[in-house]
Design brief:
This protein is an all-alpha fold. The protein has six helices and no strands.
Length: 112
């Protein structure tokens, strides 16, 4: 049973990573042409990781109770905020910090 939880957690982490890759790829190219801007290596890798996330979710949620699915998914927002802080050097504003704390609190209360 633990392998399904690991797959669900990896899917959340990979979703955050792929979103960071998509933004990094879109920002990297200053070219105005749409194909060059949105079909670079970072964007393609981001979409490939999204495909892997889909497979991980199908595998994990086939065996996990739906109650656990709703516990894992909100952490994507927290991981995206943390990764954008670390990788993209974006600053977290007060609203992002408060919303991340609300997500974590909600997950804890939901599981009581």
């Amino acid at each position: 049973m633990i392998k399904y939880y690991i797959c669900a957690a990896l899917a959340v982490l990979f979703t955050a990573i792929s979103q960071i890759l998509l933004k990094f790829g879109a920002n990297k190219t200053k070219d105005k042409k749409i194909l060059k801007k949105y079909l670079n290596a970072y964007v393609i890798l981001g979409y490939a990781i999204f495909f892997i996330v889909t497979l991980l979710n199908l595998y994990a949620y086939k065996y996990l109770p739906i109650k656990m699915a709703v516990v894992f998914l909100p952490f994507t927002f927290v991981f995206v905020a943390l990764l954008s802080l670390a990788v993209l050097r974006e600053k977290m504003n007060k609203q992002q910090i408060i919303s991340s704390l609300i997500i974590i609190t909600g997950v804890v209360i939901y599981n009581l």
